[in-house]
Amino acid sequence: MLPESIAISAVLFAIGVVGVLTRRNAIIVFMCVELMLNAVNLTFVAFARVYGFAGQVFVVLVMTVAAAEAAVGLAIVIANFRHRHTVDLQAIDLLKG
Amino acid sequence: MYPTPVSLFYTFNFYLFGLVAIASALAFVTRKSPVTAALWLVTTMFCLAALYVMLDAPFIGVIQVLVYAGAIMVVFVFVVMLLNLGKEQLGTDVRGLVGRLGGGLLGLALIAFLWAAHKGVPLASVTIAPDSLAVAQHAEGAVAPVAQPLFTTYLLAFEVTSVLLLVAIVGAVVVGRRGAARAA
Amino acid sequence: MQNYIWAVPLLPLLGFVINGALSLFGAVHLGPADPSLPHEAREVALDHDPAEHGAPTRPRFYTAVTIIGCLVVALAFALGVAIFVEMVQSGQTQPFVQTYFPWMPVGDLQINAALQVDQLSILMVLVITGIGTLIHIFSVGYMGDDPGYARYFAYLNLFVFFMLVLVLGANYPILFVGWEGVGLCSYLLIGFWFSETVNADAGKKAFIVNRIGDYGLLMAMFLMFANFKTLDYTGVTAAAGNLTAGGPLATTICLFLFLACTGKSAQIPLYVWLPDAMAGPTPVSALIHAATMVTAGVYLVVRSAALFALSPVAGLTICVVGAATALLAATIALKQWDIKKVLAYSTVSQLGFMFVAVGCGGYVAGMFHLVTHAFFKALLFLGAGSVIYALHAAYHETHNHADAQDMRNMGGLRHYMPWTWILMWIATLAISGIPLFAGFFSKDEVMGTLFDRAQDSTLRDAHWLGIPGGLLLYTLYGIMLFAAFLTAIYMTRMMLYTFHGPNRSGDDERPLLREAPWIMTGPLVVLGVLSATGGFLNLPPFFPLFGAPINLLKNWLDPVVGPAIIRTTHGVAVETDPTLGVTLGVIAGSIGVLGILLAVIRIKTTEVGNAVPEPAIERVLEHRYYVDELYDRIFVRPLVALSRTVLWKGVDGMIDGAVNAVAWLGRAVSRAGAAIQSGQVGTYAWVLVLGVLAVLGAFSLFLYA
User: Fold this and answer.
1) Do B95 and A54 lie within an 8 Å CB cutoff?
2) Which residues of A touch C (CB under 8 A)?
3) pLDDT of C609-638, one tens digit each?
4) pTM here?
5) Fewer CB near the terminus (10 Å): N or C of chain A?
6) Do A21 and C686 touch (CB under 8 A)?
7) Topology of domain B1-88+134-139, per CATH?
8) In chain C, positions 644-683, which contact chain B (CB-CB < 8 Å)?
9) Contact, C387 vs C417, CB < 8 A?
10) Could you give the domains of chain A?
């Protein structure tokens, strides 16, 4: 099942990338990032079946980090929303050069 | 589940869950309303959980549902509802046609590259015996084979991750405070 | 003493450096007090009180510049005389070459910085420094109240330096350095009062037309190097001995050299700069455009006599051009009203005489006429300078803005300037070829040589554009006689309008006319004596005069040009038949007398200013055959149009376009960079993904390749 899992994972990852590139709503972009992380988790689990439990251990850690990142990221989105009253990514351009 | 029966039923379900996962992911990416998108993502995660279970990772599958779908996605939905984002608040949400086409092409390219990249020659000495995951789980239970390396070989990673969680919590609280703008 | 030959050009150079430095101190900023403004304009601009006309204000460093400027040239002359005396006493026949350093050793080519002292070069040195000293002394008086005094003497010294380099050089490149240098100084001095556009344009015209001729000299040098592998005079003379007589190589080199001479010595077609050059101060015209620079072409031909003697066709060409120029210029001079223009065209005409002489192998005759012409033409120019000075001073007093150089404002000046009058008549008699004056002997020598060559020489045997050489030379002889006739006429006309008849200067100015100060008249006296007695330099053998020595110049120059002369006469030394010589002399003298008499009888100086309608031919002459207008139409305007459209808009546009494109590229790159720094997370995500794809792509290539 390894090649199939990798194929599914690749497609999901690509969909996540396209979402990040295409969407303007910050929260949806975050969710796309979560999707990418999930796809990666699938890859890890698939490889764990061939190469040992270390893959699953890594999945646990990835999930932990994903949770932490989601919390902090959403806090930032909320803070930004308080300023600009929008979650539009294009409105965040203070670094415009 | 030991040994994992690789039968037609198994293969059919595997493909089914896989395809549903992809379809819900596509649906998730193209929704205008954030709540709808979140729900579609939850669907994707459920399918992935099923896949995990079919790949001899029941513990991972369970915590996928508990943590990802049950906690993280809930947080997302809470935030959406807190900010009162409706469908109409953003107008044309998705970028222009060029952006969408470009993004699609990039996605396809990415798939191609990833598929090509995975053909790398693996290190033969590292593989384990087939079905050894299922064997271990049958012997020790679903959690022990994952927990045991986590708390021994990869203890440092575990501890660092816990510190990371602490920092993230503190940070989220600080950033999300009402007076955060004035304190900055 | 010859070892110190390097001091001869270096002394004037030292004078240039010192005077040039002094001129920088005295410089006044451009504005109403600009030193280069003509005197009147400055006066007007400074609101000069006319009642305050006291002694002329001396320019800064007047004493120092005067002493240094004149002393260096006088010392150079003294040194030249010393070397000359030494050469006479030692009777040397070989040239003395002193090499200083290898200038351009490149492969086969070995050009040294070297000076050569032989009979020809020391003769030129004496002429240049001698007449140069006299003109420097004259300039002290003439330019005495010009604020650009130091600059003037600096340029004049620089000119003498370059001219000496020209004649003393031991090879053609050194000659070329001097050639270009005198061209430069000519430009600087003609445009001395450059704030007037006319003067600046005249300077430019002189320099540019000269440059056209310089192309000829360069081509000749290239051909010489390619075939002879040397550019020294000794080397070229030796190599010329091996060339086939009348061959295409000799002819080509000689024609290119002559092209250079038409530029520098104002022959057809490049003579147009010389009349315009009269915009410069009169002593400049005397030195540069009468005595020295314009004779550089004649010097070049004589120096290359070994080559010219080999090519009868080139010689005939030179004779034809010289004769045509002599005739053309003489006809134009008949109808000019500016006194300096008359003398300018006279110079062009007399240079034609010199070229006719050297063209048919009469190198001694050409040099003889060069020397005597230097005497009387310098005298004529300096005398005209005295006249202009007097009129200018008178007009200055009365604030009259009339032209001080126009003969229609002169007349009857013999009462006010007797010394100048007598001396200029001496020069006029000399130039007209009146017997016993210097010009008679030199002109007679030229005509005599021409006639001899017409009878028997290599030129006679050759054909020029199908015309037999003998017929051509006889025809040219006739033309030269007519030109000499015209010379007498226009010179007498000039004298009549200037010094005789009623005075037309104006009733207010007449009492103010007086003789020029002695510092200016003194050199005139010296030149007058030389014009009267200069003929004794080369008395012909059939004219024994009180036992005076004959053929002095011929014997002197024999080591240098003797073999070349003999080559043109089929290898035999020719002595003019005494009867023929006397007959030709009588013809030449009577032509001169006839011309003067005709002018005196026919020209009525009282008829000036009457509105007599001129016949068409006189108008053509007065407008100089419209040659300048023709050149303007044919050459100048198309070139300017070409330059504007092709070079300015096209080539320059391309270059500007390239530079602008570089600037545009910089801006475009920065714009692209700024676009990347949009501050948008989405943009950064795009870039990130593209980077990932790049890495993955490399990875895949690595796997599969």
Assistant:
1) no
2) 17, 20-21, 24, 29, 89-90, 92-97
3) 555 666 777 777 777 778 888 888 888 888
4) 0.71
5) C
6) yes
7) Four Helix Bundle (Hemerythrin (Met), subunit A) (1.20.120)
8) 682
9) yes
10) 2-91 (1.10.287.3510)
